[in-house]
Amino acid sequence: MNLFWEKVEKTDACWNWKAFIDYKGYGQFGFKNKVVRSHRVAWELTFGPIPSGLHVLHRCDNRKCVNPAHLFLGTNKDNVNDRELKGRHHSKRITHCPKKHEYNLINTRFYNGRRHRRQCDRDRRDKTN
Q1: Domain-by-domain residue ranges, the chain?
Q2: What whole-number distance in Å separates Cα of residue 18 and Cα of residue 22?
């Protein structure tokens, strides 16, 4: 679909969407009689339909990017975890647990879209047993 790819500026890394960008920073394109985010269209044009229940995520964390090599499929949980790890959630301002321990990639797990410090979870579990 040449009309779609004509709206893309290819660089050495990201392929940035040049047309309409929504208020969240994602490109939008009219596709299959509806307005769809451009990275989803890029996925479908390159790889085929997106399975039900899956999201198209960005490895590069650039919402305007439509480079198929930078896109991957994931569940909603994958999307939430990806957002947290990349520091794009409002909780990124919270750097320590309520017990004043620092959150980091080694001591933190994500459950139901929230961060939990592993040792605090163990302490809480041991206290109740």
Answers
A1: 1-74, 75-129
A2: 12
